[in-house]
Design brief:
Mitochondrial carrier fold; 0% strand; repeat; transport; MCP_dom_sf
């Protein structure tokens, strides 16, 4: 479809998005993305954790076992804390991104030094990932525990929270956070860097051929999510193992997993994770960008 100008990129280095705009748009994007992709997230977690019980489990066997034993509704286990997690994560990630983006850009302008677009975006993305992870990690812990439970009846979020506190104290809600910080911070930086690169490429296509890719935000978000996940997936697996293990030493969990399952064990469930992560990234960025444009067009939040 021909277009006079490319769609505005609200995540670019030169974008000027306020904290309030990004807070609202980020919350909406998180809620929508989670509502659509919840079943894939549950399957991904079950498959990642299945090696603990069955070395020969596959995607199809994991899904069949889950449906046979627990029913279709089990696909939404842990959805309440997950919805809270996604709303908080989307809000905190995009808000911190816009604030850091504006702050780092202003610092460069005032001090006279300049970072490349790629380095700027990666740095801001890492900072956004750090802030959002620390804020939302306890809900990620609850989501993982609930999704990993094979009990037929639904466990309440409050019950799981009490069990964690009884067994490990307040620090139990942050079990595995160190590999999580490394995983999510790196993933966030890579995601925004990949998205920036993809948007830059589509802008060049528009300039040269006069055509705009339909749903460019979703397409670039899909590419960015896939790239970040492929690089950081082993750390994500390690994080999940630590969240359900009584062992708090990340190196010991890593060593045990490598000794028992080899390198491939860290990529167990990668395809189903990609099936969930890539669409989630596409939906999240598309809804975020659209929400910013819509609120500005309607003169909301101004």
């Amino acid at each position: 479809m021909k277009s006079a100008s490319p769609r505005e990129d609200h995540l670019s280095k030169n974008s000027d998005v306020s904290a309030v705009e990004s807070l609202v748009a980020g919350s909406i994007s998180g809620a929508v993305a989670r509502a659509i992709t919840a079943p894939l997230d549950t399957i991904k977690i079950r498959l990642q954790l299945s090696l603990t019980h069955d070395k020969n489990s596959t995607l199809s066997s994991t899904v069949k076992k889950l449906l046979r034993r627990e029913g279709v509704t089990a696909l939404w286990k842990g959805n309440v804390p997950a919805e809270i997690l996604y709303v908080l994560y989307g809000a905190s990630q995009f808000t911190s991104y816009s604030m850091l983006n504006n702050g780092l850009r202003d610092l460069q302008d005032s001090s006279g030094f300049s970072m490349s677009r790629s380095l700027h975006t990666f740095t801001v993305g890492c900072g956004a990932g750090l802030a959002s992870t620390v804020l939302t990690y306890p809900f990620d812990m609850l989501r993982t525990r609930l999704a990993a439970s094979e009990a037929k009846q639904f466990l309440s979020m409050s019950r799981v929270a009490k069990d964690i506190y009884r067994d490990k104290g307040a620090l139990g809600f942050f079990a595995g956070i160190r590999p999580s910080l490394l995983s999510i911070v790196a993933s966030s930086g890579l995601f925004f860097w990949s998205y920036s690169l993809a948007r830059s490429t589509t802008d060049k296509i528009h300039e040269q051929f006069g055509y705009r890719i339909w749903g460019v935000e979703a397409v670039c978000g899909f590419i960015a999510g896939s790239t970040a996940k492929a690089i950081t997936f082993p750390l994500d697996t390690l994080r999940k193992r630590m969240q359900i293990s009584h062992e708090r030493n990340g190196f010991r969990v890593f060593s045990a997993n490598y000794r028992n399952h080899g390198l491939f064990g860290f990529y167990r469930g990668f395809l189903v994770s990609l099936m969930k992560t890539a669409p989630t990234s596409a939906i999240s960025v598309f809804v975020y960008e659209y929400s910013i444009s819509a609120t500005r067009k309607a003169r909301i939040l101004l």
